[in-house]
Fold:
Amino acid sequence: VAEATEQRKAENVEYKELMASDGAAKEVLGFAKNRLNKFYNPKLYKAAPKQELTEEERIFANNGGTPPPTEAPGGIADTGVTAFAQIRVHHQLSADAAPAPPPATWGAYQTKDETSNGVISMIDLLIKDMEKEMTEAETGENEAESDYQAMMADAASKRTADSKSLTEKVGAKADLEADLQAHGDSHKATVNEMMATEKYIASLHAECDWLLQYFETRKAARADEIDSLGRAKAVLSGADYSLLQTHARGLLRRKQ
Structure:
């Protein structure tokens, strides 16, 4: 966009310079044509507008005074044209180059009317060429400006769409980051819970190993404890525990 803008500015400056130079040249040619008409075609001559006198100058002239003289138009050769761009020659002759040779002979003699008509026709042709060039330049300038405005409108639309897309993507990114943070927190909590569960399972496993390791010992101790409780109960019931032991020994000997 910046490059296109700079190019458009340069083209506009070039267009204005061309229009100014061609307009000034057209005025000079028109002035020259009018001067020729003054001498060769008086009917086509257009006199310069008379100077408008102020009220004080009119009163002074009516009383017999001399009105102030009309000021010269000024500009280029008193034509009134103040701006004219000089045409630069692209291919200049070198300093050592010899000047062009003069024409071999003069052309056929022509009367003043024929000469003036030819010069005036040539001026008219030059004026038409300049008008054509100015028209083409104006058309090209309008088309270039139209294309530039269309390109700027497209660029503005694209910037609006890109800005909207960027806003949507930034919002989507923020949502995804929030979801990622939530999933990260959930994952961390799940990992902590899993570690606690594994620790609890390890403690249960250690307790079970201890129970399995001392099961027989505890079973024998429980059996002795039950036997002791039975004997204690029998003693409390009044039985002679020593006689019972002697009778049991006698039976064992008989079986043997």
In short: Residues 102 and 251 are 172 Å apart (CA to CA). Confidence is low (pLDDT under 50) at residues 83-98, 105-110. Helices lie at 2-40, 55-62, 112-213, 215-236, 241-255.
